[in-house]
Amino acid sequence: MELTDVQKLIDIKLESSVKSKSLTEGEAKKIFKLFNIPVVQEEQTDMDVENVLAACNKTGFPIVLKASGSNILHKTEAGLVQIGLNSDNKVLDAVKEMKDNAGDDIESFLVQPVVAGKREFVAGMFRDPQFGPVIIFGLGGILTEALNDIVFKIAPLNNVDMEDMFEQISSKKLLNDFRGEKKVNKKAVKNILTALSDIAAAFPDIREIDINPLIIQPDGSPIAVDGLIVLEKEKDQAQADYDIDLSLLGSCYYPKSIAFIGASSTPGKWGHMLLTNTLSRNYKGNVYLVNPKGGKIAGRHVYKSVIDIDNDVDLAVVTIPAHRVIDLIPDFKKKNVKGILLITSGFREVGIQGEKLEQELMKAAYDEGILLLGPNTMGICNPHIDFHCSAVHAYPLPGSTALVCQSGNMGTQLLAFAVQQDIGIRAFSGSGNEAMVTIEDYMEAFEEDELTKIVVLYIESIKNGKRFFNSAARVSKQKPVVVLKGGRTTTGERAASSHTGAMASNAKVFNAVCRQAGIIQVDQPMELLDLSAVFSSLPLPKGKRVAIMTLGGGWGVITADLCAEHGLEVPELSQGIINRLDKILPSYWSHANPVDIVGENDPNIPMTCLEELLKWDGCDAVIHLGIHGKRVLINGMVESVRKADPDIDENQAQFLKDFILQFEDDYTKYTAKLTQKYGKPVLGVSLLTDEKSRILYRHEEYEYKTVFFPSLERAVKALWGMCYYNEWLEKNAIQNNNLNVD
Fold it and tell me: Per the structure, how many domains does the chain have?
């Protein structure tokens, strides 16, 4: 069989009138052989029992007997597979039983030898509507769907992807020597997984491929003893993305002039909120107000039309009703408008008519070379030029975190949190409907932007899954991409025909995309900026070994547990560091990692111990707990003493408070100094927090910042994100080096 023969077979099947558009097991295995997938030797016979018996005797008892047909998808469930038949009579009984069960659906019988092997895996492919071919591998046999121990990867696969598949499955011990059988020949399994990817690429009309079981023979070699290929005519590609000029998108964050179309004098209206928010800052560009009524708003002249403005306009901020927006395009063209920030709603999100209006508007703007952000967006901001044109009156410091949110409310919350915690923002965009500029465009624009060091995304849907995957994988090699996905529990609606397809879901596929592309995926909104804080403030750890320093034993134990749950290591202390800490701490200290410094009041002890841990070559990062935040405790204590003891010396009370404040300031600065000196991340957890507490503390003399989280859970999760990203970078660097050598 040649590739052209396969395509002819697929075309015939798709054009036939059979209920199930699938290939028989025999046909599937012929394709497997063509792509060098090892398959069991078998005899295929017609319905005549004499021919079946002849095939059995040729194969040699015991045998496996299967009924085969285009309408037969799950043979085992239908009672159409019998294993270990060892006589003619048992074969005759099995043939009769199968004919009774399936009748005319049986087209032929397959006779196979019983394959020895105690381990069964599954390998397959299904075609995801967003991300294209997805390859699976995991525990096979009758337990496949029950245990669901499988891994997804987006095709095509590289060696890192396949090694990660082996590492991810819970049953990975079965890949090693097992009960007298040799370890699995991983190279042979990788060849099978690669072949599945190649088949999917060669034949777009193949929807699902199922090899279950893939039996591992005693010598460790894999062999396919069953196979299913399900067909579906390739659907026409959706409308292509707009080809966005990324430099034009970047210019929308640096407008030299802005026109507010629909400017309003009524507080609370979008035309007033965005205008006053922009004017309240130190934005240096020209600002023009446009409203057909003319007059004055906020003490400024109002133009009746954008045409009346004497100068060109870079960015038009539009808040007028949806049906009137398209009429603005010719005037925008005359004024050389580069971009439209379309706040207005009433487009695709309201139904078919709105979708049609949106498409017409996008085409009109695109044809004139005008970029459109939105519609239905909450706005944008660029703190680096003090440009804040959004619904939220929150003004974060200029920083390196690019933030894009498909939910305006989520963006509002995150910007306010960034202000509260002193986290710098490179730029923000509420992406809205993404009718023209999509999440992939933003990601690729920030990929090229030198000021962006971290890309943070809140997303609910993706328009071009393959492009999202490729863009994220490319961006991740340069800077971290952190994602919170809304709607993670939504499952695929299309019923699957194979075991492979049955285990697919939107959430599982998206999780696989993130892992494969190096995306750090989080579960809670605040984790987005927690990771932004550490990535923008600390060096990457070189490994997963964590030293823990604490003022209390219980806190250390819980932190060690959390580290273990997140795959971080808490190594035993070396004798050398124990000896050094013995000289600093009292004899009853923990003598173990976590290091309990037992609540000593000497302010030098935590500083000295922290440095000793950072010196230690047995750790890659330090988490320290409870040293910062004592001032909150002391404030409460002093107030209690004042109430209870009228004779308290006020100078003494104030001295105590000042002493703690000075210690915390010195300790915070010293932590940044040690971080820079040893090049290891240091994450703190505050003892207590109040309204003055922050996550980040900046020090002009140091490159790195000091980080203190309000809870140890957030600190561990943030460190996990850094370690996860570093590990992904290292694996892909090895892959790239191997490719260069080859």
Answer: 5
